[in-house]
């Protein structure tokens, strides 16, 4: 009875203040503020096949958008084909279209307060346009075209993209009250992604002429060879031409209205950076949305990010959606990391071939709408940064990078992601971290290397893995005390010896650690300490003859002590090995190293949560009009995404997790804590700068608001 009375007393004490602080604000957003700056996007994209333009019902589409709590529609407009009655003879009209489908949809949406972003794709033209203007289209080094049925890939430097595309965009803006434009597949094309075939560098005559002008007479390369200085010049040329086109587009759009958003996958002259969570190959990556959003929000802090959950399994399997549990994870990770919600599906929502995700979409979008003020204005609390190998990582560097992320995620160590190319633009941000991890990061600019050197001098610890900075021997020597003997050394059959138990505390019961993939042989005499002796292959064969693993004289880890920081080099594929095979001994190497160089890493957030519970902690400012210019945070939000249903190649319902405990380092004593899911207050204690509380049960997601 006493416990019941105490609980009732606590509720009565708590709820009045909760109700008072959560009353609906009467303030309004400034009318001249760009609408997307509120960062509350709930986007649904209908990628319409041509034939659906004949049957799409604007009224039913509107009902479906409202049922899903969507506030933004992304729908086809033009480029490959016009989904409106165009007057331009070089703009192929959708043959199935009846009336003015686009105009009717925009009118209905605006009547209900839903923004409309229209989609353009200038990567292809219809066969009829190609026959009239073959010089507008891509030509491979072998003289081939890239063709999808009756659509031909164009050249970015030919008149269609350089001139006609602007006329198409202008026609749509002038005739329809669009709220934004989205550019699909911008830039140079070398592949036929719909068939998985590589064709090579475009040899269109317009490309040849413009590259010669840009490079003072160089011949357009025919092979992608990073060691070729002409190809390096071509990469700079591509960047220049894409940015030049984007700048011209920005000038056109903003001359029409500052309230029209430009959205695409790049960052220059763009308002909304779009990214995509896709499922293409094994092993599946359940942290795709956290990865994409984390990379973008930290690398481009002045942009709004919209990470789209792609419904389709692949380009060849568009009529099947990925599993609902995977979509749920993606959407929750989006909002937990600072993006809005965004989902892309094939066609209208009526008569859709795979509707299994509809309930998930409705649930998560409704959650975001209900708690909208608690999303979209976040600041990271992390003191560790992981450097990403680009915005769209691939190949072995991607595997190394993801493996390092996976280790930190499972250990519940907060971290940020920063794209490698943006380091030189984020010097102040980099210098505020306590540890920067470079997983197989090569081709850093001189300016980026200088930022890292200055950060190291100011107390930022560095941890590099595999072939990081192999192309900059001087920086590798100065920062890490390492010289390369053989950077491409296959490690299968070799072992590492974690014999220093003062550092490697997780290896009490292990004396040898197996290896495969790259095991670089480096001269680490320039470091202050060497660890993890490399043992030779020994004798392979049946049990009777194995053994003979002797020290090679090489080490898999070197530590260089700088005046104010430490720099550790692990010239091995430790991240890739964990990402693909998941043996904890390889994760434990990295965790022990982090404990050694930055022991405070575990102090910010401590929990008994399962390794497959993603824990995301952010400072937040309430996203309401009166806080438009506010800089000081209103508190913390702890997001929990339950990924226990992920088995590696299948997504199941997550297993409910009970009796979770949390200890969070925070300088303020909270005024209250409550659960977004249960809508109930959470009891807590705060002492000596640490907040402690428990969560009875986690199902799929939780948001715990910790107010000042």
Protein topology:
Elements: H1 2-21, E1 42-47, H2 58-67, E2 72-78, H3 101-111, E3 115-121, E4 124-126, H4 127-132, E5 147-148, E6 151-153, H5 159-175, E7 180-184, E8 191-192, E9 197-198, H6 205-214, H7 229-256, E10 261-264, E11 272-277, H8 288-299, E12 304-310, E13 312-314, E14 317-321, H9 324-337, E15 341-346, H10 358-370, E16 378-380, E17 384-388, H11 395-410, E18 416-419, H12 427-431, E19 435-439, H13 446-457, E20 461-465, H14 473-480, E21 483-486, E22 495-496, E23 513-514, E24 521-523, E25 529-535, E26 551-561, E27 566-570, H15 574-581, H16 584-597, E28 605-607, E29 613-620, E30 635-642, E31 657-665, E32 672-675, E33 684-687, E34 690-698, E35 701-707
Parallel strand pairs: 1-2, 1-15, 2-3, 3-7, 7-10, 10-11, 11-12, 12-15, 17-18, 17-19, 19-20, 20-27
Antiparallel strand pairs: 4-6, 5-6, 8-9, 13-14, 16-29, 21-24, 22-23, 22-25, 25-26, 26-27, 28-31, 29-30, 30-35, 31-34, 32-35, 33-34
Helix pairs in contact: 2-3, 5-7, 8-9, 9-10, 11-15, 11-16, 15-16
Question: Your description of this structure?
Answer:
- It is a single chain.
- By secondary structure, this protein is an alpha/beta fold.
- Helix 3 links the parallel strand 2 and strand 3.
- The two termini are 32 Å apart.
- The chain has 16 helices and 35 strands.
- It comes from Runella salmonicolor.
In short:
Residues 1-19 form the signal peptide. The protein is of the alpha/beta class and 708 residues long. 29% of the residues lie in helices and 25% in strands.
Query: How big a fraction of the residues is strand?
Result: 15-25%
Total helices: the number is: 16
What is the number of strand segments? 35
User: Which residues form runs of ≥5 with pLDDT under 50?
Assistant: 1-24
Largest sheet: 9 strands, mixed
CA-based shape = globular
Q: Tell me the Rg in angstroms.
A: 27 Å
Q: Which sequence of strands runs across the widest sheet?
A: 18-17-19-20-27-26-25-22-23
Helix amount: 25-40%
Q: For the terminal residues, how far apart are their CA atoms? A: 32 Å
> How does the helix and strand content classify structurally?
alpha/beta
Mean pLDDT: 94
Signal peptide: 1-19
Organism: Runella salmonicolor
Keywords: Signal
Protein name: Family 10 glycosylhydrolase
């Amino acid at each position: 009875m006493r416990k019941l009375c105490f609980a009732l007393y606590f509720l009565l004490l708590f709820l009045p203040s909760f109700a008072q602080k959560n009353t609906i604000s009467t303030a309004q957003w400034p009318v001249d503020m760009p609408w997307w700056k509120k960062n509350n996007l709930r986007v649904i994209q209908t990628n319409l096949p041509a034939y659906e333009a004949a049957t799409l019902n604007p009224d039913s589409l509107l009902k479906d958008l409202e049922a899903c709590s969507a506030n933004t529609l992304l729908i086809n407009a033009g480029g490959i084909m016009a989904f409106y009655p165009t007057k331009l003879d070089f703009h192929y009209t959708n043959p199935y279209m009846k009336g003015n489908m686009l105009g009717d949809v925009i009118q209905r949406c605006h009547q209900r307060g839903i923004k409309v972003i229209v989609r353009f794709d200038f990567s292809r033209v219809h066969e009829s346009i190609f026959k009239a203007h073959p010089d507008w289209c891509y030509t491979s080094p072998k003289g081939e075209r890239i063709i999808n049925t009756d659509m031909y890939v164009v050249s970015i430097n030919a008149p269609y993209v350089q001139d006609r595309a602007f006329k198409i965009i202008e026609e749509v803006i002038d005739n329809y009250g669009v709220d934004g434009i989205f550019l699909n597949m911008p830039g140079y094309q070398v592949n036929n992604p719909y068939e998985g075939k590589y064709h090579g560098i475009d040899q269109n005559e317009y490309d040849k002429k413009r590259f010669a002008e840009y490079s003072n007479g160089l011949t357009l390369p025919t092979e992608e060879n990073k060691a070729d200085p002409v190809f390096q010049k071509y990469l700079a040329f591509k960047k220049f031409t894409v940015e030049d086109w984007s700048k011209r587009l920005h000038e056109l759009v903003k001359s029409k209205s500052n309230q029209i958003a430009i959205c695409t996958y790049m960052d220059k002259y763009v308002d909304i950076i779009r990214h995509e969570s896709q499922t293409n190959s094994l092993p599946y990556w359940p942290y795709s949305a956290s990865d994409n959003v984390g990379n973008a929000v930290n690398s481009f802090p002045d942009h709004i990010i919209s990470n789209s959950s792609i419904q389709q399994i692949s380009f060849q399997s568009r009529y099947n959606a990925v599993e609902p549990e995977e979509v749920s994870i993606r959407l929750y990770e989006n909002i937990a990391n600072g993006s809005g919600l965004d989902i892309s599906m094939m066609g209208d929502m009526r008569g859709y071939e795979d509707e299994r995700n509809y309930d998930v979409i409705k649930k998560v979008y409704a959650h975001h709408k209900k708690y909208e003020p608690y999303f979209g204005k976040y600041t990271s609390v992390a003191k560790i940064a992981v450097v990403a190998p680009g915005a769209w990582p691939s190949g072995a560097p991607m595997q190394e990078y993801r493996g390092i992320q996976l280790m930190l995620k499972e250990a519940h160590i907060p971290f940020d992601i920063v794209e490698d190319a943006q380091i030189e633009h984020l010097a102040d941000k980099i210098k505020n971290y306590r540890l920067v991890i470079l997983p197989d990061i090569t081709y850093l600019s001189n300016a980026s290397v200088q930022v890292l050197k200055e950060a190291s001098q100011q107390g930022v610890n560095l941890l590099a893995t595999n072939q990081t900075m192999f192309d900059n021997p001087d920086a590798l020597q100065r920062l890490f005390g390492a010289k390369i003997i053989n950077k491409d050394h296959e490690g299968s059959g070799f072992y590492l010896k974690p014999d220093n138990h003062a550092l490697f505390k997780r290896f009490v019961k292990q004396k040898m650690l197996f290896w495969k993939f790259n095991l670089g042989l480096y001269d680490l005499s320039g470091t202050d300490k060497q660890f993890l002796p490399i043992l030779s292959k020994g004798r392979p064969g049946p049990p009777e003859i194995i053994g003979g693993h002797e020290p090679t004289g090489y080490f898999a880890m070197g530590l260089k002590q700088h005046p104010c920081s430490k720099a550790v080099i692990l010239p091995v594929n430790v991240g890739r090995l964990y990402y693909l095979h998941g043996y904890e001994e390889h994760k434990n190497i990295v965790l022990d190293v982090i404990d050694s160089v930055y022991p405070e890493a575990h102090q910010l957030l401590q929990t008994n949560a399962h390794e497959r519970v993603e824990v995301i902690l952010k400072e937040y400012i309430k996203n309401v009009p009166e806080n438009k210019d506010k800089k000081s945070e209103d508190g913390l939000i702890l997001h929990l995404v339950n990924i226990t249903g992920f088995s590696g190649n299948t997504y199941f319902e997550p297993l409910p997790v009970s009796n979770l405990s949390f200890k969070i380092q925070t300088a303020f004593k909270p005024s209250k804590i409550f659960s977004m899911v249960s809508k109930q207050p959470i009891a807590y204690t705060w002492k000596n700068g640490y907040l402690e509380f428990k969560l009875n049960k986690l199902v799929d997601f939780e948001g715990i608001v910790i107010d000042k």
